[in-house]
Amino acid sequence: VLLLAVLLWAPWRALHGAPLTELSGDQDFQLFLQRNLEFTRKIRGDVAALQRVVCDTLQLCKEDELLLVRQDLDIAQAPLEQCHRRTFQAETCFSQIRAGLRIYHGSLATIRALLPGHAGLVETLQLDMANLSSNIQQQMEDLGLATVRYPTENQDPIPTFSSHFHHQVGGFFILANFQRFLETAYRALRHLTSL
User: Fold this and answer.
1) 3-class DSSP state for residue 35?
2) Helices marked H in the chain — which ranges?
3) 3 state DSSP class of 3
4) pTM recorded for the entire structure
5) Which CATH architecture describes the domain 27-148+165-193?
6) Distance (Å, whole) CA 125 – CA 136
7) Residue 2 pLDDT
8) Looking at the predicted structure, is the pLDDT value of residue 23 above 70?
9) Where are the domains of the chain?
């Protein structure tokens, strides 16, 4: 546990000295950060709710018990290294958050197929993710930062699985990876509020 705490803390210690003074006093930017911190917190809660459903209904609760099966799965894990590097830049971090949201948006179709009784929650989550991505894009445009426009239809392939069990484990890891992604994105947004 101590090692995990150190590993999670270390990147943020390096991030603490990141220069973004040009944004720190901007009231609109601070308002954007506060609103989207809340939005990210809501999305994290919805993902946690789906993780509980996977645990309760499929009995898939512990990641360490599923690591061997994971090796057989092709599960995308969106990178966020630009959000906790020593040379932190809002533009590249925001771009990675948006790209990751797009990847997980498509991957959630796997969860909807796995948990048809919870399709409404998955669809709400996908809508919230699209709105968060749009908020970030709008803020980047307002700040004059470079943005990438993604097509509205999803171009990313949905993961495929060789068996029903692999589908279940794949769903578990999609949610676990997405939760880690959201935690990093949340910490990056929170860090920006303290500059």
Assistant:
1) helix
2) 2-15, 21-24, 27-58, 67-70, 90-114, 119-142, 164-193
3) helix
4) 0.80
5) Up-down Bundle (1.20)
6) 16
7) 37
8) no
9) 27-148+165-193
